[in-house]
Design brief:
Residues 107-446 form the Glycoside hydrolase family 3 N-terminal domain. The chain is α/β, with parallel strands linked by helices. It folds into three domains: 2-62, no CATH class; 68-134 and 153-468, Glycoside hydrolase, family 3, N-terminal domain (TIM Barrel); 485-620, Rossmann fold, CATH 3.40.50.1700. It has an eight-stranded parallel β-barrel. The longest helix is centred in the N-terminal third of the chain and has 22 residues, at 2-23. The N and C termini lie far apart (73 Å).
């Protein structure tokens, strides 16, 4: 009886529950921000919506009360094939009078209008560096163009990293007024995931304040080859640390622990995978660096570095450029193509084995033809921006065939191109199905809906100024510049120095004077000498576009190097010598040890930040995020795919005198 009564009571509660729920008042949705410039605003049930298709009715994709996935499916069903194809291009916002989109004036709206209106492209990289209010106004002008189109699909504006020190056109940017932090290597030196999240949260606010929605970062490539020119943008040589910090970066930028939030900036973790394993460190932006060599076990190590970003729900992944020679995945050899064309890397490994559901955005220019100036430029005919191509392994295919092969491999969007025609031809000729196009477009549209761009893509220029001027954010960035430095040597406990006379090389005199020091003209007059330098390098490929801009070759200091000569001059004067070196690559410091008293490494720090550490006003808390080899012979003998494997390194990963 008791059991029967219990069952009866449970059934009564279960049957009563729907009635009780129905009796509860339905909560009214909270109005989200909605703004329109050329389309009408609809009022439905007392709520505001944008009439993006201009039909005077609330179409499902306009209804912010619905899920991003449902809105995306509805919009997809209303699009023409040409409009879908446009979504799969990721172009460049043209600047007025600038190279590769850079400009001190703003966007060329006359050149941009047909890209949006006629070709239906709604994803673009920006390379502008304007004051915050002006940057926001330019972004708003872009969105106004997009709003006026048939379906009003908003533009996603992306950027390379713009809050650091290292700037190479086509790989990294600078931006006016934003907080300035060390390179990712500096965060690796601290090993503090919380600090990474703080940085990424601040940068997210700055991006959204000026109308940027997509970060072409983090670069979680494993720094395994010390001569590689792009080490500075990584989290170093430890795959587990790269994974942990990469996950924190994604969480901070995207605004949530498990994916992209409404006020988030979508991240595109890169470069999938093995980019750091380039022989001689020659970057695969250039024809001579198009092949990376590694074993299957080494590939697994490079994959490990991405796992934190994947677990954090990065909305995007960018494949690497080079052909990966040597490894297999599940017993299958990787195809002899750049990674953007590899079904094994993108579908078998990334999507099926690791479960990635987001957008795969190719790196730039993989569908373009590599002409003679691309392969073998000369002084008389150097490589120009229009000659840039990274179609490695598929040089003999047509552009149409490259689109088809990339899509079959798993690409959703092609970076650095606005050439829609060959993709439309591929569908017409049957090499790509419209159903496959729909899969990619659905992913791209869903991200836009998640970020609220269909409801309000505009930003307030006045608020942008205030957000980017936030003192607390700038203070934390300045503090991080100081703490992320690595004190490698401090003979006889010389630090901290007292204010006095200093002889400088590679340092602004104004910075020393602002720190309370007197600048003298000879080392003999000084209490100590300070030499600032970067890691040594050579220009081995001056006629290649990127070869003329990136560091290559040797890592050791030699006679004739400006910094080496300055150190020798100061040493000869018998005064304490400080070498403050930007470790953009793992410098060889062997012949600096006996000529210096203090070696202070940094990964992006102002002169003021360096002086604060030297004068005891701030403490260096970093540890090396990679080893520093002892000789070029040791560098040449190491395995480019294996991190920290040079013979008898001068300093090991993790070395550093942490100041308390």
């Amino acid at each position: 009886m008791k059991q029967r009564a219990l069952i009866s009571a449970v059934l009564s509660i279960a049957m009563a529950a729907p009635a009780a729920q129905a009796a509860e008042p339905r909560r009214k949705p909270v109005q989200v921000p909605v703004e329109a410039r050329s389309k009408a605003i609809l009022t439905v049930d007392g709520l505001k919506f944008r009439d993006l298709d201009g039909n005077g009715k609330l179409t499902p994709y306009e209804d912010w009360r619905l899920s991003p996935a449902r809105r995306a499916r509805d919009l997809l069903g209303r699009m023409t094939l040409a409009e879908k194809a446009g979504q799969m291009m990721h172009g460049t916002l043209p600047g007025r009078g600038g190279e590769l989109g850079r400009s001190a004036e703003g966007y060329d709206m006359t050149a941009l209008a047909p890209l949006i209106k006629d070709l239906s492209i709604t994803s673009f990289i920006t390379r502008l560096s304007l004051a915050p209010a002006a940057m926001a106004e330019q972004s708003n002008a872009v969105q106004a163009l997009a709003e006026a189109t048939r379906l009003g699909i908003p533009v996603t504006i992306s950027t390379d990293p713009r809050n650091h020190f290292h700037h190479v056109l086509g790989a990294g940017e600078s931006a006016a007024g934003v907080t300035q932090w060390p390179e990712l290597l500096g965060f690796a030196a601290l090993g503090d995931a919380r600090r990474v999240r703080q940085f990424a949260t601040i940068a997210r606010r700055e991006y959204r304040a000026v109308g940027i929605h997509e970060a072409l970062s983090p670069q979680v490539d494993l720094a395994s080859e010390p001569r590689w020119s792009r080490i500075t943008g990584t989290f170093g040589s430890d795959p587990r640390l790269s994974s942990r910090l990469g996950g924190a970066y994604v969480q901070g930028f995207q605004g949530g622990a498990r994916g992209l939030g409404r006020d988030g900036v979508m991240t595109v973790a890169k470069h999938w995978v093995g980019y750091g394993a380039l022989p001689d460190g020659f970057d695969s932006h250039s024809y001579y660096g198009r092949v990376a060599k590694l074993t299957t076990a080494e590939l697994d190590m490079h994959v490990e570095a991405f796992k934190g970003a994947l677990a954090a729900g990065t909305a995007g992944i960018m494949p690497t450029y080079p052909i990966l020679s040597g490894p297999t995945v599940g017993g299958k050899p990787i195809e002899p193509y750049g990674a953007g064309f590899s079904h094994v890397l993108l579908t078998d490994l990334l999507r099926e084995k690791l479960g990635f559901k987001g957008i795969i955005l190719s790196d730039w220019a993989i569908t373009k033809d590599c002409n003679e100036r691309c392969k073998a430029p000369t002084a008389e005919a150097p490589q120009r921006p229009q000659d840039i191509s990274m179609a490695w392994g598929v040089e003999n295919l047509t552009v149409e065939q490259r689109y088809a092969l990339g899509i079959q491999a798993g690409i959703d969007q092609f970076g650095g191109t606005q050439d829609v025609g060959p993709l439309l031809n591929a569908v017409k000729n049957g090499s790509v199905s419209e159903a496959r196009i729909d899969q990619s477009v659905l992913r791209i549209l869903t991200a836009k809906f998640r970020q609220g761009l269909f409801d309000d893509p505009y930003t307030d220029p006045a608020k942008a100024e205030a957000i980017i001027a936030d003192k607390a954010s700038h203070d934390l960035a300045e503090r991080t510049q100081r703490e992320a430095q690595v004190l490698l040597t401090n003979r006889k406990g010389l630090l901290p120095f007292k204010a006095g006379k200093v002889w400088l090389s590679g340092v602004e005199a104004k910075a020393a004077q602002a720190a309370g020091l007197t600048v003298v003209t000879t080392p003999e007059e000084a209490d100590f000498a300070l030499v600032r330098a970067e890691s040594p390098s050579e220009m081995l490929h001056p006629n290649h576009f990127f070869g003329s801009r990136q560091k290559e070759g040797r890592l050791d200091f030699r006679d004739g190097d400006a910094a080496f000569e300055a150190v020798k001059q100061a040493k000869a004067a018998g005064k304490p010598v400080v070498l403050a070196i930007f470790l953009d690559r793992p410098a060889i410091l062997t012949n600096m040890l006996d000529k210096t008293d203090v070696i202070l490494g940094n990964f992006g720090a102002s002169d003021a930040a360096v002086f604060d550490v030297l004068l005891g006003r701030a403490n260096a808390k970093g540890r090396l995020p990679f080893e520093l080899p002892s000789s070029m012979e040791a560098v040449e003998a190491q395995d480019p795919a294996m991190p920290d494997d040079s013979r008898k390194p001068l300093f090991k990963r993790g070395d550093g005198i942490v100041q308390r």
